[in-house]
Design brief:
Distance between the termini: 36 Å
Structural class: alpha+beta
Strand order of the largest sheet: 6-5-2-1-7-8-9-10
Number of strands: 10
InterPro entries: PepSY-ass_TM (IPR005625)
Helix content: 40-55%
Keywords: Membrane, Transmembrane, Transmembrane helix
Protein name: PepSY-associated TM helix domain-containing protein
Radius of gyration: 24 Å
Strand content: 5-15%
Order of helices and strands: HHHHEEEEEEHHHHHHHEEEEHHH
Length: about 350
Amino acid sequence: MAFLLAIAAFTGSIQAFYYEIDEWLNPDFYQTNTSGPLLPATELIDRLESTVPGAEVWYQQAPAATGRSSMLAVSPSWDEKNQQYAQLENNYFYMDPVSGEIIGARMWGKCCFEAENLLNYLYELHHSLTLPGNIGFSIMGIVACAWTLACLTMLYSAIINKKGLPSIGLSLPTTVLLAILMLPVAVSSIAMNFSQQLFKPVVSLFSPVAASIYEQYGEHTIADYGKRKLSYQDAYQMATQLGQQRGWTQPIGELFYSHSYNFYGMAFGLRDPAGMGNNWLYLSAENGAVVGEKTPTAGSAGDLFYYAQLPLHSGRSHGFISQLFIFIVGLITTGLSIMVIIKVMNKAVWQKQAINTHKAKT
């Protein structure tokens, strides 16, 4: 468990500065040399799908500023003629929002240490150990639970028993400090991996937590999803109008289409802002009806506590300060995990030597 926690903590510390490191490694993906009016977001989607055969855009991220690219994620479309999905060399594309040209492309999560793959591979390693299905995701959830229990045990030992962790060289004050630093990140890890299974049910004992759009749709049948009749442009225009009616003044910065549930999602504001996050609106792809919305600064105490977990875990809650906090906590947790591993290995070696000595004497 300490070994897995070391992997999760170290890769998590790097993810706190994902964009900064990834742009340093791959500046051509993010920076453009053109100036002028930006093409409509839906125009970029149409151009990419017409340029890359078999690509169907499911997510788009608006450019963060002038001279920045727009990122689009695609999935393979279904080939009716051959009765199979198209084969794609890349599924993440970076486009110049002025010219509409593709300036970079890569396959998300591809192994391993090339500049274009490193950060995404480490993300998948942090998220799911790169294992298929929900296996790795569940393993990391178990690690998060064990980490939380370890932090609580450290606090109990320090506060109730007045003891630090001398076995790994931690004094009483240091034990308290480290437990307090790690505990909120450990709890947020449970929210990331076991949200519906554990986090929300426990929080709901004190204050109700609303079901997410995915949890709501998970209770429906396929027949309830309808057919896709609205284009990205239709959904974008409808969402813009509905956002204005709600007083959401920021332009749409993220949009996606869920193939599984046949709805569009639109975020008002750029991705990963400081604070609690953006307002989201979800529209049926069949008729444009509002099927859900999320305002991360409104709701019950349980809702607010849950909404705070992602900004906390990603280091985006308070800008650079929170990024640095996650980075430091990740390195501290990695170091403690390694100390535990060394302690256990040394103990195992000592026990083996003691057994061998005993056998030699007898």
